[in-house]
Specification:
CATH architecture of the largest domain: 3-Layer(aba) Sandwich
CATH topology of the largest domain: Aspartate Aminotransferase, domain 2
Radius of gyration: 23 Å
Number of strands: 15
CATH superfamily of the largest domain: Type I PLP-dependent aspartate aminotransferase-like (Major domain)
Distance between the termini: 13 Å
Bound molecules: pyridoxal-5'-phosphate
Number of helices: 17
């Protein structure tokens, strides 16, 4: 962090003035700081000379009622201001049209998920027919594993990252068992080398090559939730295919965050949730990608339901499942409209901002964070997220060797009006989201953190 605090702040404010996307910040609600921070605590974290008579600091402050610094969009994105109006619209259409809303609502419920496909396709890099919104992440992972994990006695293994998100581990473990295999034999994990925290790309490729005679599926996170490491999805997919296996990705932390070209990379399937960088709200319906080469394959095993059936024959109420020739062919139940409304409002903002501009800002914002954290590293914590821009997204993971110290820093940050989160063991995750975070947020966070350390 530059020694001259005034200069560092001026730099951040200048960047914010030049930011083409700065207007989006006011289109989100930030949680408000609930209490005044006592002077004694303020003195901990900032120079006393920075503190004004009302207890607010030159860097923005500690006053009750002010917006908190929100760096937790990797866990739950903020509420778009437009979300409330969108929910009211659906409630009004339901109230006034009742069943008629399926066809006559302003956003007809019959085709509601289809209205989200365009914006999502631009975010994950695919055609509209390859993407859909349904269920939730883990459910979608199970459903797509049923199609793409078709083990045989010779080819039955699943290769995953060690310490994958627990829900993914449970999904893989239970699917493997369901097919009659033993997890300790059928699940191959690729772990960081002894003394390292990141998985080396070459180790993933070597493991795929080593297991190629028995590998059925390679399932990776696009971006590891703990370390913030982005995996080379194009190379992993190509290697999986060379080995005769399918390639699937959990994009919970990648979607709306890092550049994705799922179609061009040839990924077989991907799943994600919509409540992190996509700001769809708690429990929002999740998303799924299925490659074009599979969506028209009616012979592909899957579980059917009427919403995935060809639309022209859906209401004939006849026998014989005819899957839609799109990713929607995997949906089963009536569209969960109320679980998609806030997502739709948020995707409108992504459309306005443009995913390329957002990612360009994100790279700068996180690089700025990284540069301010560098001088603070080495004592209590070190940043374990890769330094190269292409191997990380918005999130930086601060690893505290002393786990209790990390937990306490996270709690003190909260008391100072900063929301980050803590993941066992010892990581404070810090994720400035380009849609609503500013360079000044980053500056103020680092200023507070420096005081705490
Ligand atoms: C990487 C990752 N995978 C899976 C999940 C589980 O998602 P869901 O609860 O929507 O099934 C999460 C939730 O945070 C996650 O972060």
């Amino acid at each position: 962090m530059p020694q001259d605090i005034a200069q560092a702040l001026a730099y951040a404010q200048q960047k914010d003035r030049e930011d083409e996307l700065k207007g989006f910040r006011s289109r989100f609600y930030f949680p408000r700081f609930a209490r005044n921070t006592p002077q004694s605590e303020i003195a901990h974290s900032v120079q006393t000379s920075d503190v004004g008579p009302d207890g607010q600091t030159a860097t923005g402050g500690f006053r009750a009622g002010r917006d908190m610094i929100y760096f937790c969009g990797n866990s739950l994105g903020l509420q778009p201001v437009a979300a409330e109006g969108s929910v009211r619209q659906e409630l009004a259409d339901w109230r006034e049209l009742a069943i008629g809303g399926y066809w006559q609502a302003r956003n007809p419920w019959m085709t509601y998920p289809a209205s989200l496909r365009g914006p999502l396709a631009r975010i994950v890099g695919c055609g509209e027919e390859e993407v859909t919104v349904m269920n939730a992440l883990t459910v979608n992972l199970h459903l797509l594993m049923l199609s793409f994990y078709r083990p045989t006695p010779q080819r039955y293994k699943v290769l995953i990252e060690a310490k994958a998100f627990p829900s993914d581990q449970y999904a893989v473990e239970t699917q493997v068992r369901m097919h009659g295999f033993e997890p300790r034999d059928a699940i191959v994990e690729v772990a960081p080398r002894e003394g390292e925290m990141l998985v080396r790309e070459e180790d993933i490729l070597v493991a795929i090559e080593r297991e190629k005679g028995s590998l059925a599926l390679v399932l990776f996170g696009g971006l590891n939730y703990y370390t913030g490491q982005v995996f080379d999805m194009a190379r992993i997919t190509a290697a999986a295919h060379d080995a005769g296996a399918a390639a699937g990705f959990d994009l919970a932390h990648a979607v709306g965050n890092v550049p994705l070209r799922l179609h061009d990379w040839g990924v077989d399937f991907a799943v994600w949730c919509s409540y992190k960088y996509l700001n769809g709200g708690p429990g929002a319906a999740g998303g799924a990608f299925i490659h074009e080469r599979h969506v028209r394959d009616q012979s592909l095993a899957r579980l059917g339901g009427w919403w995935g059936n060809d639309e022209s024959s859906r209401f004939r109420m006849q026998k014989g499942f005819i899957p839609k020739p799109t990713a929607e062919g995997w949906s089963m139940s009536t569209a969960q409209v109320m679980n998609m409304v806030c997502l739709k409002a948020s995707l409108q903002l992504f459309e306005e901002a443009g995913i390329d501009r957002l990612q360009a800002k994100s790279r700068e914002l996180t690089a700025y964070l990284s540069s301010l954290l560098a001088p603070l590293e080495g004592g209590a914590f070190r940043v374990i997220t890769p330094v190269e821009a292409g191997r990380r997204g918005a999130q930086l993971s601060l690893f505290f060797e002393d786990r209790d110290k990390g937990k306490s820093v996270q709690e003190q940050l909260m008391e100072q009006g900063v929301i980050t989160d803590f993941r066992e063991p010892g990581v404070v995750r810090v994720a400035p989201a380009p849609l609503y975070n500013s360079f000044e947020d980053v500056y103020r966070f680092c200023h507070i953190l420096r005081g705490l350390l």
